[in-house]
Amino acid sequence: MEFKRLFGTDGVRGVVNTELTPEMVLKLAMAVGTYFGPGSRVVVGSDSRAGRSSLTRVVVGGLLSTGVKVFEAGLTPTPALQHYVKTRGFDGGVMITASHNPPEYSGVKVVMADGVEAPREVEEEIERIFYESRFRRVGWQDLSYDAVKVYDVVESYVDAVVGLVDGDSIRRAGLKVVVDPANNVGTLTTPKILRRLGVKVLTINSDISHIPSRNIEPSPENVRDLINTVRATNASFGVAHDGDADRAIFIANDGRYIPGDYSAVLLCEHIVKNRGERHPPRVVTAVSSTTLVGSMLSKYGIEVVWTRVGSIIIARTMMRVGAIAGFEENGGFMYPRHQYVRDGGMSLALMAELLSVERVSLSELLDRLPKRFVVKRRVYIDKSVLPEVYERIKTVFSGLEFVEVDGIKAISNSFWFLVRPSGTEPLVRVFVEAESEELANQILKEVLDIFREVVGSEVRTA
After folding, report:
1. pLDDT per residue as tens digits for the range 36-73
2. In order of start, what are the domains of the chain with their CATH numbers?
3. Residues taking part in catalysis
4. Looking at the whole model, is its pTM more than 0.90?
5. Is 343 exposed, middle or buried (0-12, 13-18, 19+ CB in 10 A)?
6. How far apart are CA 184 and CA 177, in angstroms?
7. How far apart, in whole angstroms, are the C-alpha atoms of residue 20 and residue 11?
């Protein structure tokens, strides 16, 4: 029987009390508890979004009803909860968060014993239990167990991050960093990490609230206050998080916004060159990321493994093939010596270490990267024509390297482009990156011309 998917790219999400209702979340929690089984030890945490108190109680109650032993972490970043699950021997975790989605959204993320989000096969089993109402209910005599509150999730995470970088070098560097945690749980960890490393910290949007002062997505238009504050205070750099602080977007000392895949290239090279970590000799990233990572790391013998878009896919691929790092272009960076998940606090500590070890500014490091120009478009067409579009692309751009793990990515020395269907919307995404703005626009035009030829008419873009 076919079921409507509950889980999206990263967890179950919806508008609180409209799509993500208490009734729906209770059934989901019972399905999760049924999957893990009686006696399993599961940690529950949340970010500060609207509805977190009611949703937490619903999740805890649903898990307890199935015989799961529940440990409540309270407010915590997602990577802190994941680290706690992995290092303290829990069977799993449930994080109530919608990451970068607008404040009216919340969500439920399931974490496995290894600290990584549930793979697709586990999600499918939880969905089957949900739709078939195959919930395990323990007898009344087994319902006397109370949820246990745990108070060391944040501190154990901060200790772990600080312990992995060269604190002495960072302290000597005299860095000053502006932090924008989007009025959410990053304010519990990021300033602590920096202060423990001897960094002077300035914060904006740092009071925890379910109504954030800025849009939660750390995109260029949403972090103008951070950019202005970095410039006004002559800070070493700025860092912006999403709601659950698993992503980190950096602002250079001169105010430049750094796309997540560009900062990841810098961090990957730092891990190889300055930390001496070259095995396993590969990095894993999604096809939507810049090809600069390959050109920058090839001289160290590091190869790039391209995957479909999705942090869970990247993480599980890293675990399978081995890698020194993994990342997404949205600011999610994974450092497996710490954990195989996106981790904004770990990314931040590595960036501080990079600047301290090389004794240069972030703007200088950014200038070392080859100049690239990026254009993006959304194309509104029937996705059924995509196979023909892909074949036409391979004909028109014959001689290029093609990666076909999620749509089609064409790579040359001077440009690359990606055409892939959206996983959540009825449209196709087109990314183009080139060494000049003129070339980027030219390639975009040629790709859009292919769409027009295949469809036989003009196509709507945005």
Report:
1. 999 999 999 999 999 999 999 999 999 999 999 999 99
2. 12-150 (3.40.120.10), 156-368 (3.40.120.10), 373-461 (3.30.310.50)
3. 99
4. yes
5. buried
6. 18
7. 12
